[in-house]
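Structural prep section.
Before we set up the soaks we want a predicted structure of the protein with zinc ion in place, mainly to decide which crystallisation condition to try first. Input record follows.
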Amino acid sequence: MILSTHAVTGAVLATLVPNNPVLGFIIGFGSHFVLDAIPHWDYKLKSSRRNKLEPLNNDLIISKDFFKDLLKIGLDAALGLFLSILLLGAIRHYSILIILCGAIGGMAPDFLQFVYFKWRHEPLISLQKFHIWMHAKSSLKNRPVLGIFCQVAVVVLVFVLF
Ligand SMILES: [Zn+2]
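Run finished without errors. Recording the tokens verbatim:
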């Protein structure tokens, strides 16, 4: 899923434990893998190199494209933080600390994937294996409209449920 969806979901779930930022982070972190297990759409990263036979060998190549991708990723993460703070801080008055812990926890596994691409050592190898294993095998890759709609639906559902 895209980072915004992970951020808002992590933040919403973290507000279930408003006085425990560490647990909030852990809950956000865990929610990432549950969301990834749902078939979903992701935007394309031009610097991404996928190895279908051995996903552990996937990589992000640092080149000109990478900096364009970084902008995309940065905007996505910033939107996630903005929406989390708006929905939970401004409207529901939760502390910024718990919101940020949940949102950053929700996004962290994808940042750790990048660290893994550049530094393939434990415990990142095991985490990457787990990430790949949890990740939905089918995707809405060629259906961006449905894909985006589903992500918005997930955020609304999580927000309403919790
Ligand atoms: Zn992920």
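Observations: The radius of gyration is 16 Å.
Flagged for discussion at group meeting.
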